[in-house]
Amino acid sequence: MNPEGPLSLKKIHVTGVVQGVGFRPFVHQLAHSHGLGGWVCNTSSGVDIEVEGPSQALVQFLADLKAEAPPLARIESLTASDHSPNGYQQFEIRRSVAQEGKYQLISPDIATCKDCLAELLDPQDRRYRYPFTNCTNCGPRFTIIQDIPYDRPQTTMRDFVMCPDCQAEYDNPLDRRFHAQPNACPVCGPQLTLTDGAKMAVEDEISAAVQLLSEGKILAIKGLGGFHLACDATNEEAVRRLRQRKRRPAKPMAVMMATMEEIKSHCLVSREEQELLSSPQCPVALLPWKDDSTVSRLVAPGNRYLGAMLPYTPLHHVLLREMGTPLVMTSGNISEEPIATKNDEALARLRDIADCFLLHNRRIYARYDDSVWMFVEGKAQPLRRSRGYAPFPVRLPFKAQRILACGTELKNTFCITRDEYAFLSQHIGDMENLETLEHFETTIELYRRLFRLEPEIIAHDMHPDYLATRYALSLGPPRRLVSVQHHHAHIVSCMVDNGVDAEVIGVALDGTGYGTDGHIWGGEFLVADYQSFRRVGHFDYVPLPGGEAAIHKPYRMAIGHVYSLLGEEGLSAALPFLGEMDELELDVIKQQIEKGINTPLTSSCGRFFDAVSALLGFHGPATYEAQAAIQLEMIAAGDDEGASYPFSLVERDGIKVVQLSEIWRGLLDDLRAQLSPAAIALKFHNTIAQITVDMCRLIAADTGLDRVALSGGCFQNRLLLTKSFDVLHQAGFEVLTHNQVPCNDGGVSLGQAIIANSTTQTVD
Ligand code: ZN
Ligand code: ZN
Ligand code: FE
Question: What fold is seen in the domain 394-498+740-764?
Answer without folding.
Answer: Nucleotidyltransferase; domain 5 (3.30.420)
